[in-house]
Amino acid sequence: MKKFFILAAFALSATFAYSQAKYVFLFIGDGMGFGAVTLTEDYLAACDAKKTGSGTLTFSTFPVTGFATTYSASSFITCSAASGTALACGSKTRNGRIGMNEEATANFTSIACRLKENGYKVGISTSVSIDHATPAAFYAHQPSRNMHYEIAQDLAESGFDFFSGAGLLNPQGKDGKQENVFDRIAKNGYTVVRSLSECQTSTAPKLLLLQPENKPPKAYPYAIDRESDDYTLAQTTSIAIEKLQNSKGFFLMVEGGKIDWASHSNDAGCMVREMVDMSDAVKVALDFYHKHPRQTLIVITADHETGGLNVGTSAGSRRDIAGLERQKASEEKLNRLLAESISYSTLKNWLVDNMGITIGYSDEIALRSLLAANVKDTPANDDDPFTLKKADPVAKDIMRMVSAKSNGRYSTFDHTGTMVPVYAIGEGSELFSGKIDNTDIPRKIAKAAKVKWVE
Ligand SMILES: [Zn+2]
C-alpha cells in the first residue's frame, strides 16, 4: 500500500511538475546549428586566452537540452518561411509559405495568436526587417515570403503589442505606388518609434520600434561592424520586457536573424559575434527568469542550420581559433570594398589589417587565382586597380578561406538539413528534452502555458 502511495505521488508530481508558464520567451537563432554553437564557445575560450577548452554561451548550460528536426513539407532542407511557420504554428508547409498550408488555401494559427487570445501580451523582435520570414510567420499569412507589403499589412492587423526590427522593406509595395502601410499601422493604433530612448519613454499601448530613417530597413548592422548608436538585441529585448510586463503574462519571440546571413557568407568571425549578441539578449531574459522563476519559460532553438559549418579542417589542430577574435570587419564590408576598383596590394593589406590573418605562399596562390578568374581586365601589376565582374561570390570565397584558418570549415553557402539544438529553462522546460520536431515546439509552449491547442 505504501508503495502504491509513493508511486501515485511520483506520477502526480511527474504530471503536474510545472504550474503555468506566464512569461514565455522563444529565441530563434536563424541558421544556428551545433557547429555555430561549438565554434562560438571555442571563440569565447580563445577570448579568455585559453589554448583549448570551451567558453559558455548564456543558454548552452540550460538544464534541459534537446534537438529538433527541421525538414519542411516540400524539402529535407527548409527555408526560414517554412521553418518559421513550423516554429510559430506547429504545422509543416512548403518552402516559401508564411503561416499557410502547403496549397496556400488555409491559414494556420500561431502560438503568438493563441496566447494573445488567452490574455497574454505579445512581442515580436528581430535584428533584420520585421517583415522578414521568421518574424512574419508569427503574425502573417501569405503564400510567399517575398510579399513584404502584404506581410506588413498583416502586421498592422495583428493586434500584437510590441514589434522591433530594422524596418519595413516595401512600405508602399514593390512598385512604390500602394497606400503607405505605415498609415495603416498608425490607423490601427500603433506608434512607430525610431530610437531606443523614444521607445523607452513612450506610453503608447502598441509600439513598432524601428531603426532611424537614415539606416537601411534591411537589418541592423552586423555586431562586428556596429557603431555606438546601433541597436543590440539585448537592448531591444530589455525594452520589450518593460513594455510587455503585465499581470496576465506575455510571449516574446526574439530572432537573431543575422547568424544566418553571416553563415550564408561563410563568415565565421562575424557569425560568432552574432551568436554572442543573441546570447547577451538571452541573458536579459535570464535575469527576468531569476526574478520570476516559477512563472517564466525560456526556449532557445534555431529554424535550421546554415553553411554546413564543421569545426575542423585537414590541418585542424594547427588552426588558429584566436583569429576569430582578431577579425574586425564582416564580409559585407569586404563585399563593398571589392565592388570598387581596387589593387591587389590594397586588398592584401586590407585583409591582413581587418581579417586578422597572415597571407602565406599558398594563400597568395589561392587569392591570385580566385581574382584572375573573376576580373574584368587583368591588372598590369599589384598596384594597378582592377574591377571584378561580380564582387559577392569573390567576397564569399575569400571569407571561406579566412574562416577555415580559424577551424571554421563551411560546406555550403546555403541551408542544410541537419538537426538543430533546443535549450530550455523554467516552467514546463522539461517538455523540450530529447529528439523533437520543430512543429512540436509551439505545441509544447502552449502546453507549458496551459493553453488548449485546438487544430
Ligand atoms: Zn538563410
What does this structure look like?
The chain starts with a helix and ends in a 7-residue tail after the last helix. The chain has helices at 2-15, 34-47, 80-89, 111-117, 133-136, 148-158, 181-187, 196-201, 233-244, 258-264, 268-291, 323-326, 331-339, 344-355, 361-372, 391-405, 440-448; strands at residues 23-29, 64-69, 121-126, 162-164, 190-193, 206-209, 250-256, 296-301, 305-306, 310-311, 408-409, 415-416, 420-426, 434-437. It contains 17 helices and 14 strands. With 455 residues, the chain is α/β, with parallel strands linked by helices. α2 (34-47) crosses α11. α8 (196-201) links the parallel β5 (190-193) and β6 (206-209). It is globular, with a radius of gyration of 23 Å. The chain folds into two domains: 21-309 and 413-448, Alkaline Phosphatase, subunit A (3-Layer(aba) Sandwich), CATH 3.40.720.10; 316-409, Arc Repressor Mutant, subunit A, CATH 1.10.10. The site of zinc ion has 6 residues, from α10.
